[in-house]
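Researcher: I'd like a structural prediction for the single chain below. Treat it as a standalone chain; there are no partners to consider.
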Amino acid sequence: LTVLQGNLEVALLKARTQEEYREALINNLEQVGRLISLTRSLLTLAKFTSDTPPVRLAPLALEPLIRDLLAELKILFDERRIILSFESQSVPDVQGDAQWIKQALINLLDNALRYTPSDGTVTVRLQAAEGWVVVIVEDTGHGIEPEHLPHLFERFYRTDWARAKDSGGTGLGLPIVKEIADAHGGTVAVTSHVNKGSVFTLRLPIATQQRVLA
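Model: Treating it as a single chain, here is the predicted structure.
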């Protein structure tokens, strides 16, 4: 809001050319976009911190959901010349809400896209574990310094490198992933090495019926 106000005040100080007014409008439109993104993220967090998180759990097949999502996002990765790949094992259905699990995966992939350089790779892996289905998002990005790792899922937390890069993130994407994982009875974790990349691991419980049969 301060940036918006400043841009408008400067634009109105004196008569401007059409091109100068256009530039001011473009800059303000970008700031409005950031505010919209921030507001949506805050509303999402508000939903998940209420007494009744907005998830409707049902048996859900993850592999087709992930394949469809990666097909949708591939153009973004292609534009950045980042290889996006998917490795899948045969896994049982999870107990999940398709809308919110998709949102969690979008946030993880958006994070990988922001911090992986051109000619890098982002790999999504789907695996089965005892009582869980595991989704791994691995990138070859900058990586995260050890002192930042315990704070990544805190609201508004951004590493020094992320702030310096100013990629447009709000510091709410990963906290939203954690809220979604918690609401599903799952977990999210990260390991990382500077100049090698990061690995985010999302664990989701298998469908209740399949647990009983097991």
